[in-house]
Amino acid sequence: MTIDSDKILHDLLNSLDSLEGIRPGEIPNIALYMDQVTTFMDAQLASSRRFESDKVLTKTMINNYAKNKLLPPPVKKKYSPEHMMLLIFIYYLKNILSITDIQTLLSPITDRYFGSDSSFSIEDLYREVFRMEKSEIDVVKEDLLKKYDISRTFFCDAPAEDQEFLQLFSFICLMSFDVYLKKQMIEHMVDHLASLSQPSDPKKKS
Predict the structure, then answer these.
(1) Helix (H, G, I), strand (E, B), or coil: what is residue 110?
(2) Of 47, 72, 84, 192, which sits 20 to 30 A from 170 (CA to CA)?
(3) In degrees rounded to 5, what are phi and psi of residue 73?
(4) Torsion angle of alpha carbons 188, 173, 137, 142, nearest 10°?
(5) What is the pLDDT of residue 170?
(6) How far from the centroid of its chain's Cα atoms is residue 138's Cα?
(7) What is the crossing angle of helices 34-44 and 81-93, to 10°?
(8) How many CB atoms lie within 10 A of CB 1?
(9) CA distance linking residue 48 with residue 38, whole number of Å
């Protein structure tokens, strides 16, 4: 098995550059029917698909999100720009969190800001998060290079024909452990938020 780890790293870094989210200004400023929503999302987030046949968003997914109260119901079968922004949040969060966890995170946002006349809106939130995520890509690249360099120091005593594969395996393990730890921390924070939203039990009061 011939492995070119340097090329793999180069491709990874290039793929990060292509993973561009949907800019706030690209979200249609009009309400859309469901077919228009799925078409827009598929086109805008095509670079994030692992396989060409993968669907970014389907009608069934949208209906399930509404059923599980992740998404407010459409108005006259149309989805507003606020709906679109929430769907984008859901799209990214569902890769690491359960539906229940996403509901815990998004419910306070939809309760406070969806369709609200408040001076702070879901669009303001989306713009801030989008700006934050863009700056994070360079941080991820730097960390990726660091983990790659570390992985190249492993398995130096392994058979020569296996070193490249084993070092690539260690690189994947380093990234996986990083994701695992961060997922644990995210779930811990979500559990804390969930506990804050639960009504206190008067029976427990002394």
Answers:
(1) helix
(2) 47
(3) -65, 150
(4) 120
(5) 96
(6) 17
(7) 50
(8) 6
(9) 15
